Amino acid sequence: MKIAFVGQKGLPAQTGGVERQVEELMIHLAERGHSVDAYARKGYAHDLAVYKGVRIIALPFIKGKNFEAISHTFLAVLHLWFRKLDVIHFQSIGPASLIWLVKILKPRTPIVFTFHCKDYQHKKWNTFAQWYLKFGENVGCRLADQTCVTSKELTAEANELYKGYPIKYVPSGINPPTLLEVSGIRRFGIDKKNYILYAGRLVRHKGVHYVINAFKRTDINKKLVIAGGGAYTDDYVDELKKLAAGDDRIIFVGNQSGSLLTELYSNAYLVVQPSEYEGLSMAILEAMSYGLPCLVSDIPSNLEATNGLGLTFRNRDENDLEAKLISADQNPELIAQQGLALKARTREEYDWNRIVDETLNIYQQVIAKQ
Fold it and tell me: Which intervals hold domain Glycosyltransferase subfamily 4-like N-terminal (predicted)?
């Protein structure tokens, strides 16, 4: 099959759970012998023409959080207009806003749309951007030949809102990791099992400020490592660093990928995920795949991922988070057992081979309907 992916930033993925999920799906499809093209934003494509069997088509875009995705998607749609493709696979609700244009330009080419999360809930967006993202969700769910939703909670909501349209639960996948011993991360002043890890973007709805405030009130003899960078949220990043000032246990290590990120996961004591709202969190799935215990906010998507096997705290409740951090620190054997149970869950629920099989079946079904 000839498959084009539209909506991701570039390859290899540097930040964001959606980016990593889409990258893995494309690579798995290419490994099975399919022709896979990734429309990437210039500057995110690292001047690569091919990455692990995936052909990269780098196109320009208008810089700025409000125009970056939509300007690039528009050029991608124009580019694919003249191409022979079996399936076009859109990612996320912003890019999905232009599915209507593809339906006009290429009415015989089926479209699959993956609905990852309600991006309009993110606090970085202004009122118009939030409206436009809701419009993109509406277009994607109504016009795509098949909508794939990455969490069961969001699938139920979408099926209720868009009754009669083809909407199906297809989760993210996760690869079994190769663990690394402590090496490069020593530059950050950390060692095996002596730190709690947050890995993700530094944007307000991720709730990192709750973790910092709760952790500062404890006397836990471990570090709190915050791995990630802002996404047009420099003010929030500055706010977090001011909150952490004066506590040398809190370490900002910036955006990490590759072997350093693998080391951070391989040697953490605990992973904390405090999001106020979230799609299916790739940070949690990655932590689970390493056999790490997870302390997560009790939002539905986090509870779905951990399935009662992890530690939870009441969303936005710093007092409860403080108590759960102390409990996790004082019960290493118990949380280690929880980590092993979470690892087994990733093999059962989030296996890439099964998810790729399901994705290919969807492609075949939408092609057959044309």
Answer: 16-176
> Do the domains at 2-173+351-369 and 184-349 have one common CATH topology?
yes
Question: Domain 2-173+351-369 belongs to what architecture?
Answer: 3-Layer(aba) Sandwich (3.40)
Positive or negative: CA dihedral 204, 249, 264, 56:
positive
Q: What is the pLDDT of residues 306-345, one digit of tens each?
A: 999 989 999 999 999 999 999 999 999 999 999 999 999 9
Q: Which CATH architecture has domain 184-349?
A: 3-Layer(aba) Sandwich (3.40)
Residue 227 neighbours by CB distance under 10 Å = 24
Per-residue H/E/C for the chain: CEEEEECCCCCCCCCCHHHHHHHHHHHHHHHCCCEEEEEEECCCCCCCCEECCEEEEEECCCCCCCCHHHHHHHHHHHHHCCCCCCEEEEECHHHHCCHHHHHHHCCCCCEEEEECCCHHHCCCCCHHHHHHHHHHHHHHHHHCCEEEECCHHHHHHHHHHCCCCCEEECCCCECCCCCCCCCHHHHHCCCCCCEEEEECCCCHHHCHHHHHHHHHCCCCCCEEEEECCCCCCHHHHHHHHHHHCCCCCEEECCCCCHHHHHHHHHHCCEEEECCCCCCCCHHHHHHHHCCCCEEEECCHHHHHHHCCCCEEECCCCHHHHHHHHHHHHHCHHHHHHHHHHHHHHHHHHCEHHHHHHHHHHHHHHHHHHC
**Structural domain spans, the chain:** 2-173+351-369, 184-349
Q: How far is CA 201 from CA 101, 113, 222, 254, 363, in A?
A: 31, 24, 22, 10, 32
> Quick one: average pLDDT of 142-169?
96
Query: What would the mean pLDDT of 36-56 be, rounded to a whole number?
Result: 91
Q: How far is CA 148 from CA 39, 114, 161, 167, 169, in A?
A: 19, 5, 15, 6, 6
Q: Per-residue pLDDT tens for 64-85? A: 877 899 999 999 999 999 999 9
pTM, two decimals, is: 0.87
**Strand ranges across the sheet with 294-297:** 250-252, 223-227, 195-199, 270-273, 294-297, 311-313
